[in-house]
């Protein structure tokens, strides 16, 4: 695994959004990839839409798979490595699930044996098709698939226990490994995994299953609303998730991938997106064992497409006609100039091991607030499970020399600093 931090983007096609798979135009894809490569980034994350690729449980469309190979090859020609998300799944407020899992064929995505067979075959097929491509990084099981497993907010969840989710993760990751042995295969969820008490996808699964831990940082989760766009919590939220994930990792130096992070309007107005990008990236780069930063997203969604939440239209680093924004230049500069290896974070904030009380780590919770009081004081905190606070070997392996609980972290009066 490369020691240098990777910089990339989540690829949103400028023409047709992810519906471009229905009218695949390789020339348009190449033009998009040219505009990404011009920023000096080194990888993209791409999203086949599951019902377009596997419309029937027994049919994985060969032509769709061939188009994915063409996209990966085109990226490789431009020096871009590619991570492929499999089960799409959920993207930008829309669900894309094949008809053989819904309505008249309603079956649970995480527990039904036939659905699991179909999913495993699909992931294995995509991985195997790309296994010999040198620019193929590996598979992500799907985009934020945990949102299907619990409600709210999902209106029609496929409920499962944490044990059933663990079995699902194990089987799907094994299918990816069978298709492309030795590649970087992982799973990725949105932040309810770290913040929501009844979420069956747990922090321990996120931090131990797969080759790396993936975190998705979005400050519209209450952080920016509560603290404002230029606050320490807003600008350091991504760094917080990176460091929070380390509490549950068995490997003291497990890599963490900031796989999604973006500047959502109106909480981050377009004129402030570049400043937010700069601050967020700088804070993330101060986290040891960071695998990479993959911004959401490459290109704006076309205004010709209807029914997206307003914030989705302007999240691109590049406009819909492939012109870079100031935020693109900011990320490109960080990719070009970053050469710093961060020192260990020596102060660890105690977090509860029990996932049933993980809301203590959510915006407004005592762990969350204490982490950012320490950050504001320059302490560069990380986190440690309450079950590990007396594990001297674990603490030493991570470089932790001080352990504090949230109730020990008091607000700093104005004009004072903590020694």
Structure description:
- The protein starts with 5 loop residues before the first strand and ends in a 15-residue tail after the last strand.
- It has 14 helices and 13 strands.
- It has helices at 26-37, 50-53, 62-77, 113-130, 162-179, 192-195, 203-208, 223-227, 232-235, 237-245, 273-285, 326-337, 366-376, 392-398; strands spanning 6-10, 43-46, 81-87, 90-91, 94-95, 136-143, 186-188, 213-217, 256-261, 290-295, 347-351, 381-385, 402-404.
- α3 crosses α4, α4 (113-130) runs parallel beside α5 and α11 runs parallel beside α12 (326-337).
- The chain has two domains: 6-337, Glycosidases (TIM Barrel); 347-408, no CATH class.
- The chain has 419 residues and is α/β, with parallel strands linked by helices.
- The radius of gyration is 21 Å and the shape is globular.
- Residues 326-347 are annotated as: Disordered.
- It comes from Streptomyces olivochromogenes.
- InterPro entries: GH (IPR017853).
Class based on secondary structure composition and strand pairing = alpha/beta
- Poorly predicted runs are 412-419
CATH superfamily of the largest domain: Glycosidases
> How far do the termini sit from each other?
38 Å
Shape: globular
CATH topology-level fold name of the largest domain:
TIM Barrel
What is the class of the largest domain in the CATH system?
Alpha Beta
Tell me about the largest β-sheet. 8 strands, parallel
Overall tally of domains: 2
Order of helices and strands: EHEHHEEEHEHEHHEHHHEHEHEHEHE
Strand order of the largest sheet: 7-6-3-2-1-10-9-8
Number of helices: 14
The whole-angstrom Rg is 21 Å
- Counting DSSP E segments of at least 2 residues, the number of strands comes to 13
Mean pLDDT: 95
CATH architecture classification name of the largest domain = Alpha-Beta Barrel
Helix content range: 25-40%
InterPro entries: GH (IPR017853)
Protein name: Glycosyl hydrolase
Organism: Streptomyces olivochromogenes
Region (Disordered): 326-347
């Amino acid at each position: 695994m490369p020691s240098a931090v990777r910089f990339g983007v989540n690829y949103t096609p400028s023409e047709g959004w992810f519906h471009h798979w229905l009218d695949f135009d390789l020339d348009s894809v190449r033009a998009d990839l040219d505009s990404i490569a011009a920023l000096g980034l080194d990888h993209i994350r791409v999203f086949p839409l599951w019902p377009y690729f596997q419309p029937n449980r027994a049919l994985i469309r060969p032509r769709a798979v061939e188009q994915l190979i063409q996209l990966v090859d085109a990226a490789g020609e431009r020096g871009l490595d590619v991570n492929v998300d499999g089960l799409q799944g959920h993207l930008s407020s829309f669900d894309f699930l094949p008809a053989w899992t819904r309505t008249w064929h309603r079956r649970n995505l995480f527990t039904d044996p036939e659905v699991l067979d179909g999913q495993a075959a699909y992931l294995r097929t995509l991985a195997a098709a790309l296994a010999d491509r040198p620019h193929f990084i590996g598979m992500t099981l799907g985009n934020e698939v945990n949102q299907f497993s619990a409600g709210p907010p999902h209106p029609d969840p496929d409920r499962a226990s944490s044990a059933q989710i663990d079995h699902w993760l194990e089987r799907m990751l094994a299918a990816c490994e069978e298709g492309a042995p030795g590649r970087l295969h992982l799973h990725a969820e949105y932040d309810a995994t770290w913040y929501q008490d009844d979420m069956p996808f747990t922090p321990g699964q996120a931090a131990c299953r797969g080759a790396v831990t993936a975190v998705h940082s979005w400050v519209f989760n209450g952080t920016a609303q509560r603290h404002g766009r230029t606050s320490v919590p807003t600008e350091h939220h991504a760094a917080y998730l990176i460091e929070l994930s380390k509490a549950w990792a068995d490997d003291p130096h497990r890599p963490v991938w900031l796989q999604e992070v973006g500047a959502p309007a109106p909480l981050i107005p377009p004129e402030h997106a570049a400043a937010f990008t700069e601050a967020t990236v700088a804070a993330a780069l101060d986290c040891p064992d960071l695998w990479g930063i993959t911004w959401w997203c490459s290109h704006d969604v076309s205004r010709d497409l209807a029914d997206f939440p307003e914030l989705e239209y302007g999240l691109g680093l590049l406009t819909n006609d492939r012109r870079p924004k100031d935020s693109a230049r900011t990320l490109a500069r960080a990719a070009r100039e970053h050469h710093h290896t961060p020192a260990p974070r020596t102060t660890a904030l105690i977090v509860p091991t029990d996932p049933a009380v993980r809301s203590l780590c959510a915006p407004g919770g005592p762990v969350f607030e204490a982490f950012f009081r320490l950050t504001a004081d320059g302490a560069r905190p990380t986190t440690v499970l309450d079950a590990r606070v007396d594990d001297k070997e674990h603490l030493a392996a991570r470089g932790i020399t001080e352990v504090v609980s949230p109730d020990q972290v008091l607000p700093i009066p104005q004009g004072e600093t903590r020694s």
